[in-house]
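Here comes my example:
=====
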Amino acid sequence: MEKTDRRYEMYVNILKEELVPAMGCTEPIALAYCAAKARETLGCMPDRCLVEASGNIIKNVKSVIVPNTDGLKGIEAAAAAGIAGGDASRELEVVAGVTAEQKTEMKEYLSRNVIDVKPLESEEVLDMIVTVWNGEDVAKIRIAGHHTNIVLVEKNGKILYQSETVKTEEKKDQADAGMTDRSLLDVYDIYDFADTVDIDDVKEVLDRQIAYNSAISREGLEHDWGANIGSVLLKTRGNDIRTRARAAAAAGSDARMSGCELPVVINSGSGNQGMTVSLPVLEYAAYLNVEEEKIYRALTLANLLAIHQKTGIGRLSAYCGAVSAGCGAGCGIAYLYGADQETVAQTLVNAVAIASGMICDGAKPSCAAKIATAVEAGILGYEMCREGQEFEDGEGIVAQDVEHTIKNVGRLGKYGMRETDKEIIRIMTGC
């Protein structure tokens, strides 16, 4: 793909927008960011707080530990972390600089039981409003569409900022509000871009992904985190490359879901997806001893394919996002082996046919096991291709080509599983 092609710049921008650092699970961190911004707008420590959150935010915050809180979990903990120790200027690393004194302050704030939580009825899957008071003063912040997308800033009844799209409500789906258009993403174009991109244009974001995600993976393997899925795999399934690839990604999630304070580089708004799409590729790259340039190209391919799949599904869904990332990883591994466009496309089709339908029931330790399953699907999808086997048009959700299959997956995840999502939330909240 030539640099003069408008898709070239767009693909580079998409990688820069999506592959950003985050500390902790992105939903509680987004809530902490919202709360930190609310306190910043109020200008002082609030004496009470109201958190209103959409069902998917409640689902993904309920069971995960918030980093830098000494093991606290849940919506109230995320809000308190943002209020007492958050730095809103750091966005998804909002709680990275929390001090010991601030940890004490957040625990004291929680002990006062001044944080109320209410479900938020919204057309947006990712939606939250944090309102804080101090005496007669009040500030309100709303984030919707994606994790750092502030759409409303209000103080004492005066609107200081409001997104035009939210104000007019002309767009119900704002998953990519303010971001580069993803409609030009296409499997064959992504392959062409990854195969020809000037490495200097993607090196910085990929170097950060490699460094951050590899570090938290090592932490997950070397210490006791969560259900230790990565360690269990290596102890029970052997040490072959296939197992190591699954264990590397699972171990990162083991640590991250259990409050590890190391940052990750995310993909499609998710740290788990960022680790799933990158770490197996890095394991295979080391195994195959491929040159550095090919590693960057394989990661570019894998990341963009994961983003392409998730574009149709949306940021949050009942469809487990690790599946999309695992399929992307399988395609990146295929590229390392020298696969052409057709083989990469069929790898993706095979992989989604194997694993689509895995549910998302919130962020928690079992995400690591789901990641291992998704990576297995991606690897098997490629191994089928190498043996001349493939799933064909009309077999379940598989369509006549890769793009129509991706559209079917998007339709399944975004629309078909809406009631599933509601039922999962009802089960998790005891309603």
Notes: The chain has two domains: 21-168, 180-429.
